[in-house]
Amino acid sequence: MESGKFQNFQFHWDQSKIHDRTRFSKEEQSGLVLSNENKTVKRKERFQGDDYPSIRILGDKSIESAIGNDKTNFHIEWKIKINQSHGFIEIGIMNPAQQHTFLLKSFKDEVQIEKEGNLETIKFGETFTVNDVITVRIEGNQDGSTMTLHYLKNDVYVGAPFKDIPIASFYPMVGLNDNDDEITLN
């Protein structure tokens, strides 16, 4: 897979786009802390036991905003460095309006599709941990209405577990589960 044709998708994590599904989601204090001009996200437990499920945060720009009018010939990517992990980090894309998520799990060699509360888990890839850099690449398919999601780990191609994803309002997404889990846009 040629890396030269992929453009770096510039975005920041958006404090207003946090999806907190924990039992403490109604608390005033957020379970995520942003720093480094909103490029770094760190998980902070609010109370003992505030660790499941992961809290997800989305980027401030949709993928659609990056691809322009040519939906058949776009190639974008972003990189996420794992600064701290206790084993459960999610990296992918999410459409919050349709409750549709495609993600790679750090602790298992699996990817997951979530759609309106239904889960599908697929064996894929390999685990990742502290100091690994995960690259997410998205390219438009020739039909002009779908896209393919690729993953790389430390610049080594892992594969494309998700093909024919409808081009819709998807955003870059990470999910952090445990206290002090931390990632940075690279």
From TrEMBL:
Domain of life: Eukaryota
InterPro entries in the record: B30.2/SPRY_sf, ConA-like_dom_sf
Descriptive protein name: Uncharacterized protein
Highest classification ranks of the organism: Eukaryota, Amoebozoa, Evosea, Eumycetozoa, Dictyostelia
